[in-house]
Automatic annotation (TrEMBL):
Signal sequence annotation: 1-16
Protein name: mRNA
Entry's localization field: Secreted
Gene Ontology MF terms: ion channel inhibitor activity; toxin activity
UniProt keywords, alphabetically: Disulfide bond, Secreted, Signal, Toxin
Pfam families noted in UniProt: Defensin_4 (PF07936)
One cellular component (GO) term of this entry: nematocyst
Source organism: Oulactis sp. (Sea anemone)
Domain of life: Eukaryota
InterPro entries: BDS_K_chnl_tox, Myo_ane_neurotoxin_sf
Gene3D superfamilies cross-referenced by the UniProt entry: Anthopleurin-A
Keyword Phosphoprotein: no
Protein family (similarity comment): Belongs to the sea anemone type 3 (BDS) potassium channel toxin family.
């Protein structure tokens, strides 16, 4: 129970950070998960934060680990 409360706290904390804008919600057919995309910074570049996945969809993307997800910068921006 304490673990669930802690995870909910982390989710609330990350979603309340200034500058994070929800772009859209999409259902990833490969992972069978509902994912939310928000803006993030990865090594000084602007990218997209994907909740609930551990690797970027495009293997050529610049990738940074984030809390419960990953920040991906497309190759054209990196």
């Amino acid at each position: 129970m304490e673990c669930i409360v802690f995870l909910l706290f982390l989710l609330t904390l990350t979603s309340a950070q200034p500058g994070n804008q929800v772009d859209n919600t999409e259902y990833d057919l490969q992972d069978q998960k509902l994912t939310k995309r928000v803006s993030c910074d990865c090594k000084g570049k602007s990218g997209t934060y994907w909740f609930g996945i551990s690797k970027c969809h495009d293997p050529n993307s610049l990738q940074c680990s984030a809390i419960l997800g990953v920040c991906c910068v497309p190759p054209e921006r990196s």
